[in-house]
Write a structure and sequence with these properties.
Blueprint lengths: L2 E3 L3 H13 L8 H7 L15 H14 L6 E4 L6 H7 L5 E5 L13 E5 L12 E7 L8 H11 E13 L21 H12 L3 E3 L12 E3 L2 E12 L1
Parallel strand pairs: 2-3, 2-5, 3-4, 5-6
Antiparallel strand pairs: 1-9, 6-9, 7-9, 8-9
């Protein structure tokens, strides 16, 4: 499947249950989250319950398609679970990139190559990775031309770009609403199709069927209701 859409809150809860059952969840237990309201604890709060569905899909896809010795990069990695999850799953060459200067304080720093930098100008050699992951990243400051060119540069032939992002089939305006000091895009179906076409010119191609349909809006932010989409492109 090249593209799938989150349909319900139940899928989010199911994703977190599977992550916990497999010992892959980096989310703190509920009691610790409750306690932190009254007694702040040091360290980075890794993970987001709302991202359980796409984090699980990404981890399972990598597990099924990428060898444990192949290098994998997570972009926009600050506070994201995916790099620590892959390391815990036995991936031995996991890198993680983000602009946040606290990134090296993330979990498993002895096993993950954390670097501070811009993923549109990533500090890695051409063709270095078998997969690049991006969990709720590309909708912030989106530039389809630069993104697809850089992902194609970073990936080996046959490598995968695996991304999740804010989505609704019809356009939801976000003009004037910045997040993290960057523009915010809730991708519509035409937005996704245009990006796939742009990526295709850089050698990144869909690898399966695309299901653009959405039946519910389980995500809310800044007075907008929408869902998430998950997509895989492969470097030919």
């Amino acid at each position: 499947m090249t593209l799938e859409v989150l349909q319900s809150e139940q899928q989010i809860r199911q994703g977190r249950r599977i992550l916990r059952r497999r010992g892959l969840s980096f989310m703190p237990p509920a009691w610790r989250t409750w306690l932190s309201r009254y007694r702040p604890t040091p360290g980075i709060r890794v993970g987001d319950d709302l991202k359980s569905w796409d984090v699980l899909k990404t981890a399972e896809f990598i597990e099924q398609h990428v060898a444990k010795d192949d290098p994998v990069l997570d972009i926009g990695a600050y506070a994201s679970e995916i790099a620590p999850i892959l390391a815990r799953m036995g991936y031995r060459k996991v890198s993680a990139l983000d602009l946040n200067p606290d990134l090296p304080k993330m979990p498993l720093a002895d096993r993950i190559d954390y670097r501070i930098g811009n993923f549109l100008q990533a500090p890695y050699a051409n063709g270095n990775f078998a997969a690049v992951t991006a969990i709720s990243v590309i909708e912030h400051g989106f530039d389809g031309e630069k993104l697809s060119a850089e992902m194609s540069r970073l990936l080996k032939p046959g490598g995968f770009f695996v991304a999740s992002f804010d989505y609704w089939p019809e356009k939801i305006a976000t003009n004037g609403q910045d997040i993290f000091g960057m523009s915010w895009t809730i991708f519509s179906r035409p937005d996704v199709e245009n990006f796939i076409a742009t990526a295709g010119m850089k050698g990144l191609q869909p690898v399966g069927a695309m299901n653009f349909g959405a039946t519910g809006k389980p995500i809310s932010c800044f007075d907008r209701d929408y869902t998430f989409a998950w997509m895989v492109l492969q470097k030919r």
